[in-house]
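User: Can you predict the 3D structure for this chain?
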Amino acid sequence: MCQSKLTGMDIAELSANLSSDDPAIGLRASLALRRLAERVEANQVGAARKKGWSWQQIGDALGVTRQSVHTKYNKEP
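Assistant: Here is the predicted structure, written as structure tokens:
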């Protein structure tokens, strides 16, 4: 379920698994959701930078400091 693209069925399955009574299933679904959210955020940060957004603007949009978002996503040496 940790693919780079989720289909409609995968999303429905993920949603069901997040509310599972089985902790192992729920925790795996939580991990999959976290990984997906991290990929989405990284893609959006990259898109924002390509459009000229500053680290401050991105940090404000994410509710974090510009320093933290810069440290996490800056690809320049």
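Residues 31 and 68 are 22 Å apart (CA to CA). The chain has one domain: 8-73.
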